[in-house]
Amino acid sequence: MTGKILEIVMLVCFGISWPIAAVKTWRIRTAKNLSVLFYFLILMGYLAGIAAKFASNDVTFVLAAYIINAVMVFLNILIYYRNRAIDRQQLINNPQA
To answer: Using alpha carbons only, how large is the chain's radius of gyration in Å?
Structure first.
């Protein structure tokens, strides 16, 4: 049980970061200095954690934290692509910038 508690604490600590990052990334309206590869690697890690829960038949409340975190990282990926489109539009509108 202690292992599950520590796992959920880790997931909650990481999970708090994703909504904060999403809001910040939405507000800055640029994909500059962001790495979509980083987001995809983190998403793959969460998906592996989800798969591990099912593979080990250890489906508990901890699975919900993995799913929420994966959704939040996916949201950050969507915002990255939205901001990249904004960057492209700004480059078209102002090519000297």
So the answer is: 17
